């Protein structure tokens, strides 16, 4: 527990505002309908976010916490529960559209539905038959690709709205679904960058939940354990865009758990690290790489890729940040800003005033 | 090295004949075009197989050993090598049809093409773009599903023959491809039975390469490390057939490496173990299981499944074997038959006559 | 959440009593000092346990929940915190001795100290130097053996008490420490039964925390995913005892998390499953196995081991249970006993009376 | 197969000489007694090595290829085979001393003895009892620490020589054994740098077999998949030496398999990469790191470590290489030297002259 931890939604928005103020690239905050608005969505929050310099981004539905979802939500055996889950997801999308979030997307964590390996005992009837029987169930194959744990159901359902709120059979829905890659969920030894390459090639890459892991789903900071893997993923994106001249539309989200690190520092560092690794992937000499590949010169190809990774991108990032009007070194600037000490004092006082335990923190 | 190891193709066919004679359920022998017929397919081998009571089954093409395939076969950058590889595969199918193998299938190991994770250094350009560019490349997604390392390209190409030897674009080819599941290739922690269930549901399960592993691709005997996993896989098949009343057309193949075990004993034991585990999956009380699932009674559902696993199927298998006219206990009967000692003597003499090192064995 | 979930410590003891009443082999309940006795150990609980037919077993110290342990407990850089942690552990042992628990052991989860791989970011200074610098730190090697996550610090510290509460340097302490094997913590592909064999051989096997996993530390029911692995572990114990004629002193504990299964049913089933798999390991023909191993007859050796696994131990367990005066089929007997419905009614009422949310359950 | 591949031992020594000539830091070549000297060690090879600017380093015994070792070597059940294996290892050490290799070490791959997980079927009797029974067996615990697959038996046995060729019981031997860490053998998710830190702390780190892997034991180039992990390992060494002022005596060896890369290029690149990552670890500001750790400032500590990893060490390495009199960029210099084309021509001719297949290469 940290004294500077958020006590309420406003603190959370204030922290998000600080992260944006120091990095210039995180204008949107994802919210959880159930956790952030237990009494229903409060439109006032849009103004509150604006006050702190950010806006409301993804609206995460919650179809796993309520006891009624114990045996599944959109694939529950009970049609009434399926209907409730779908209705809740559609509501989230409506909320998003209401506050002017044009591409309003809602993330449905697939793992809460067809659970991750091992989360359920055998004999649960997760067989093929059942997946087919309900045309409204999300397409089954995504969970089978390791590292791909979640559907970007927002896109899926958002488009369906245009069909008059009628959910269409799987074979129609499937092409519209996109995949959200959580960078810490793939099985050990899985070639995650190859999967990303394939998703791009199939037009199915929706976005990322960034984090890293050493043991399992540790939700550590992205790139803190295996920065070269993150670089290789970014490199697939940069390479595809270079090759095709097309811009990919990808949602980048941070999904980490900071047990030991002060939260805002951890968020700012994460943003900087993603920028750094992405910038390195942009520094790869694509023409040289393509030429080496064409000659099957594996030594030269790999050295060309590695040269990008070892490129010093500090000047490049400094230039970008100057343009954005943010400090050249966001993390050190934040540490010196006094924000954390101020937040700690204010929030300790707020906790005392509200009679809240000092161990409590806002989710 | 074992004295009883096969010296030539006839020994291999004789061993296959012995395995079939003692089990009654392995009438076909897969052959490798390059290894078994270095001078081109010899039709006399069909008669030789018949002499030993077996027939020629799958014709495995070999598009990985020749130096020209160092940088890939059906997805090689060089169109001439792609054409050579495809031609060789089609030849294998023709050979199969020639010797009266109606469903003649040729297995293309996908891993020799888009290599398994880690087999190649990064920077090899395995990007999405490349996969798309060649309509003749095998569908890319199969390797991404863990545990699914190989395409059942025989079915794929066999059907294509009817299109006049014209390979069609990926989107046409893909629905015809089936997947061969190697039971020891999936990544650790992967829910392999769920993938099998999905493949069945999608009509994409082509068959199995049976083996087991503890560390990685150890190619140990199927069920020797995790018999319950093999049972759960079979249970998905049995459950689907019970639920739909349909018979699945699945190719069961053994793909093991016996470093320590005498080979024919290991093969006979493997066949018996597969029978045993499959029989147990047939003993699951499907009605009770479905009823428990419908009530979400996880305790009862799992106990129903487990009851099948712990069922003593010895009497059932004895009855089946009586009907097939083979010994009730094939492994013990074989060990007492004297076959191994006879083969050791004959083959040692043959090695001496041919001046072959006693360390050499026929692949 | 389940209506029959325990509301308070008495409910927990009542459930433990029911488990013991139906199985006859679980007389002791482990307690957590902090969770079960937030106001300090209450000696009345010993009588309460007795009323429900059980006794208090292991006293688990809690050196991880308090904020002061954020940076470690017995290896914290601050000597005052190290002293506090050690003092708390010694208190737990005193408590155990006080209520007549002669072998009173306290389990220190090593992972809360030198955290499991990935739980901490790099750069934390977990280097060798630090481990040495404090003679009171628990011996470092145990965490390195995969699957061995916890020290049986009770034995460790209990013996130290005899040295006058003076903690001795690592080289002295180490021989006294024993290892508690959590059957779901070892890394994937790790040969856990070989580690157990080695621990036995070195006199270092303290006991087990039973559970199973498919993905990571899922804490599923022991034997629910890989019953053959559990059998092989038991088989190492049975084999050692047969070979040496010695009885091993091993603490068997259940450490599972039942998210979906009704808790008492899950506990009774777990106990039965452990009995079943252990009984199977006792049915292995040890003389035949040793003879086959001596001849390096791997086929016969493995079939001898497998014969034990496939032995039907139902009659054996029925006889044991008759002698213990418990039902022959504890799980089915419990399900028919009406205990669950009664507990649900009583505890729902209790929750209402206490104004406790129906989502709350006693840890 | 590559035209420039070595045809005989002299080619191998010539390649080693080239690697040393371009890097200046690889003066010694490890040899395999059985493979390099099928007719017994040839002292002339020492002169041959000298001619090519290198010397003979580790003498690897081979106690796994001969059929007599099928069931184990130094732990074989048959005392005659154990004696033969031990004798062969001692011979290797004598050979090493004979050619003036003062620290003459022989590497015994433990995995050929107590095989890696999964390499043998269950029921093989790898139990604790057996390990104890033979005082000459290598200490059992090393294999259990993941990532530690081999004993540096040279040190072990070399010291034993001083005891008059009498092998002493395990408890005596154990303290003398050191561990050779193969950087690609540890189980997935294993915290290998923590193990290295512990081995250093215990005085048990003998050396490294460098390589990397993505899937399993791929034997890819060290640092090609996870350079940050290699850096963290080096950082433990650098940190210990900084902290204690002591120099560690560590044997650095390369143990890679280059299937696709031209061999000498791959070796030179590997050497450069190890230098690069080690140099980075030396650039970590140890005082700043220690200060951050002392304050538990995890953000600052990690940034301090990362700053070393991202340091551009090109100038430092250029200076070192200038001093050594080798090219500043060994890989590019080698590629431009024409060595490979010359070797290809000469060796193709040699193959033709000797009637050797062009697919053959010297091990």
Description:
The structure is a homotetramer of 363-residue chains. Chain A has a single domain, classed as TIM Barrel, CATH 3.20.20.150. Chain A is globular and about 65 Å long. Residues 106-121 and 125-176 of chain A have low confidence and may be disordered. Chain A is 47% helix and 7% strand. The two termini of chain A are 12 Å apart. Chain A contains 15 helices and 6 strands. Chain A has 363 residues and is an alpha/beta fold. In chain A, α9 (227-244) links the parallel β5 (205-210) and β6. Chains C and D meet through α5, α8, α9, α11 and α12 of C and α5, α8, α9, α11 and α12 of D.
Question: What structural keywords apply?
Answer:
6 strands, TIM Barrel, alpha/beta, 363 residues, four-stranded mixed beta sheet, globular, two-stranded parallel ribbon, homotetramer, 15 helices, 47% helix
Oligomer: homotetramer
Tally of helical segments of chain A: 15
The description of the largest β-sheet of chain A is: 4 strands, mixed
Structural class of chain A: alpha/beta
Order of helices and strands of chain A: HEHHEHHEHHEHEHEHHHHHH
Rg on CA atoms of chain A, Å: 22 Å
CATH architecture annotation of chain A: Alpha-Beta Barrel
Distance between the termini of chain A: 12 Å
Summarize, please.
With 363 residues, chain A is α/β, with parallel strands linked by helices.
Topology (SSEs and partners):
The structure is a homotetramer of 363-residue chains.
Chain A: H1 9-23, E1 28-32, H2 33-36, H3 44-51, E2 55-60, H4 79-98, H5 128-133, E3 150-151, H6 153-161, H7 170-173, E4 179-182, H8 192-201, E5 205-210, H9 227-244, E6 251-254, H10 263-282, H11 286-294, H12 298-309, H13 314-324, H14 330-337, H15 339-354
Parallel strand pairs in A: 1-2, 4-5, 5-6
Antiparallel strand pairs in A: 3-4
Helix pairs in contact in A: 1-10, 8-9, 9-10, 10-14, 11-12
């Amino acid at each position: 527990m940290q004294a500077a931890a958020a006590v309420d939604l406003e603190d959370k928005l204030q922290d998000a505002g600080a992260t944006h103020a120091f990095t210039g690239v995180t204008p949107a905050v994802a919210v959880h309908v159930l956790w952030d608005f237990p009494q229903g969505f409060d439109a006032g929050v849009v103004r509150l976010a604006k006050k702190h310099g950010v806006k409301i981004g993804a609206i995460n539905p919650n179809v796993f916490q309520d006891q009624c979802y114990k045996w599944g939500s959109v694939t529950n055996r009970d049609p009434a529960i399926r209907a409730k889950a779908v209705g809740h997801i559609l509501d989230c999308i409506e909320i998003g559209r209401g506050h002017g979030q044009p591409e309003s997307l809602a993330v449905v964590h697939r793992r809460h539905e067809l659970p991750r390996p091992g989360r359920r005992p055998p004999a649960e009837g997760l067989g093929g038959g059942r997946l087919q029987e309900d045309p409204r169930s999300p397409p089954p194959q995504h969970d089978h690709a390791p590292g791909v744990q979640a559907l970007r159901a927002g896109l899926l359902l958002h488009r369906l709205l245009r069909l008059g709120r009628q959910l269409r059979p799987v074979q129609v829905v499937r092409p519209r679904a996109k995949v959200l890659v959580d960078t810490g969920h793939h099985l050990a030894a899985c070639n995650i960058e190859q999967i990303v390459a394939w998703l791009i090639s199939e037009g199915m890459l929706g976005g990322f939940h960034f984090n890293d892991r050493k043991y399992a789903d540790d939700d550590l900071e992205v790139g803190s354990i295996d920065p070269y893997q993150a670089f290789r993923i970014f490199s697939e994106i940069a390479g595809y865009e270079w090759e095709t001249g097309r811009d990919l539309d990808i949602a980048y989200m941070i999904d980490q758990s900071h047990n030991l690190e002060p939260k805002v520092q951890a968020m700012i560092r994460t943003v900087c690290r993603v920028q750094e690794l992405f910038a390195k992937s942009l520094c790869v000499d694509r023409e040289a790489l393509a030429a080496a590949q064409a000659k099957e010169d594996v030594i030269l190809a790999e050295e060309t890729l590695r040269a990008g990774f070892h490129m010093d991108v500090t000047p490049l990032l400094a230039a970008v940040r100057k343009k954005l009007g943010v400090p050249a070194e966001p993390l050190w600037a934040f540490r010196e800003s006094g924000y954390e000490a101020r937040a700690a004092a204010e929030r300790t006082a707020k906790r005392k005033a509200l009679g809240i335990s000092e161990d409590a923190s806002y989710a």
